[in-house]
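As described in the Methods, two query proteins were run sequentially through the folding procedure within a single session, without resetting any intermediate state between them. The first query and its resulting structure tokens are shown here.
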Amino acid sequence: MKKSRFPEGFLWGGATAANQFEGAYNEGGKGLSIFDMVTFVPKEERGNNIEMDVKSAKELEELLAGNGGDNFPKRRGIDFYHRYKEDIALFAEMGFKTFRMSISWPRIFPNGDEREPNEEGLAFYDRVFDELLKYDIEPLVTLSHYEIPLNLVQKYNGWADRRLVDFFVHYAETVFNRYKGKVKYWLTFNEINISTLSPYIGSGILIDEVENKEQTIYQALHHQFVASARAVKACHEIIPDSMIGCMLARMEVYPETCNPDDVLEALHENQMNLFFTDVQVRGYYPSFMNRYFEENNIQIDMHPGDEEILYQHTVDFLSFSYYMSMVASSAPGKKKEKGNFFSGVKNPYLEASDWGWQIDPKGLRVALRQMYDRYQVPLFIVENGLGAYDTVEEDGAINDDYRIDYLRAHIDQMGEAIKDGVEVMGYTSWGCIDLISASTSEMSKRYGFIYVDQDDYGNGTLERRKKKSFDWYKNVIATNGEVL
């Protein structure tokens, strides 16, 4: 027993994304999204590589013609679309104060560039929000969580085209007006930094169709920064009591040694990771990017008024995902370990998950302190969790003590950071119900407190079953983090 370190009103909950758990990809007037085109590749075939980027128009045409197989896991998700009442009731039983979810952009605007929204899509989220509010669960809604309408990729090459700014702002204003009495907490772009690692998933860019890859990616990111700032402006105007944040995939990077070259390398990696939040929280491009742009032949095309909109409409809070830390080395030829979308030198002091992600609870405390020192705005951990193989015992039990150990250690370090003086709004564990993996499209990589009976090929009853971690997390919430 410990005295609670967590403030009254702390937002405990869980996190999901529409493309990983909604399903019903061709129902209710929904259009195709970029993730609907990502096929499943078994681990024994791809190794540790993440196979999800579509790189060319030709490859996309092949997939649309059905030449990429028939296993598109993100199209089926776990059928939340039809089972949302059952799932939300389970979240309520755990005591969720908030539930992070995303709106599927192509469910509202199937092609992304229409003027009139799809009423069936709007009505679906009305029902979901009403169900959440029935249990006093605050929705935390991401506007764009890898859910770019496929038409915007085919017609404009995604965010490489400035016209997407207006399309996105129109979509944002539409949902702000529709749900202004139901949703207070919003996020603009999920893990906005992923575009540098996966241009198709992060920005809807077919990278083989462009001449200068780096130029295209950073120009697309500038368009997203402007769109985010304009969405912040619209949100504050339409929903005066709202809070709207940005979202980053945070990778705290340590130097491999105290060699100053390693320290500089780690500093560079951390700055490149925080560049995105520098723009969205501080409101301007950091000076350290000038050299990077110059050395990589990047010239950002800024329209008149861009700098003003970025500076005047910064986010209210900074949210981020945290799964692991990384290690940087200046030594050439160092072997790197893959984890999430990132890679780094193996840390000999840490254990790793079944997918090679190095487990570092104290790194979360480091990340919280570093970011709060840098920005002095509220922080919100909106993704943290352990992807693991779960076994259903003969009696139906799922004893996921490894998941409890992972989450306990991270929540404990989050509490220590709060004692250190960091302002943390809340914590939403990733994949609170088993869903399709973003990076590998596996169902067998499970994060949830709730087991879903489905395999990597879509076989199963979709029955929901509580794991051991379900009651553990329920007690964490009930005691406001006093009992871990």
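Immediately afterward, the second query was submitted; its sequence and tokens are:
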Amino acid sequence: MSNSAITITVKLFAAYQEACGKSELVLEFPDETPVSAVCDRLIAEHPELSKWRDVTRYGINLIFVKPDTILQNGDEVVLIPPVSGG
């Protein structure tokens, strides 16, 4: 089993951007990490985001993916919470 790490870029929108105070993060994760772990890490750091966990959509490299999709080194991840109209 490999214990190497991957580096991804996370684009933040709406509630995630407000909570983190920035529009982009660069994060490191172990190999074989699912994209949902990105959300889990942000919620661990910003518990107010927990209400968005079950309704957030995930994108990797501009394609919507399932939460259990495995991240690859260099991926660009987007977390998209529901967007209110207006």
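The chain is about 20% helix and 30% strand. We note this only descriptively and draw no conclusion about the first query from it.
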